[in-house]
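This week, work through this protein record:
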Amino acid sequence: MVIEPISFRLKGGQEAVLRCPTSGEAPAFLESFRVCVGETAFLNYTPEEVSGFTLEDERRFIEGYGSSPDKLLLCCSVDGEIVGSCDIIFHTNLKARHRGGIGIAIQRRFWGLGIGTAMFRAMIGVARAREGVTQLELDFFEGNARARALYEKMGFRICAVLPDAIRLPDGTMLNEYMMVLKL
């Protein structure tokens, strides 16, 4: 799925653009994701895992989103630099096609500037425009208060907890919280 770019201003006044990345941007897209994963333990990957992602894997990843009517991948560019990404994947099987799942990653130096809010507005808008979709879902790890605050601001509510669902590399166990937004 591809949408038109969305321009907006960050809290500091800089212009930012949400847009679908191209396969030619795979190096910059992958580097931005590597930065995000290296800055927080609250994403699903470790830096070691992401270091194994190849540019060809990333190109295929981006192309897979662009060619699918059931997935949307967006990146956020500030001054031409990719500083974050988000995605939404809609279920396609009959019993779950009313649902979509969301993921988001933003480089730390751009936290708190309005990128997450803009990403969520875009993804929620796409979901509302999709026939039959009535809820969006996401997960977050225990301790990620910043993400939780953003998700709750956007209308998501906790609906379940998976105890000890996440094991960090140092052995720390974290609960994983599931959230739902009814559209």
In short: The radius of gyration is 16 Å. The mean pLDDT is 96. The helical segments are 26-39, 47-51, 55-66, 115-129, 145-153. Residues 6-132 form a domain with the Aminopeptidase fold (CATH 3.40.630.30).
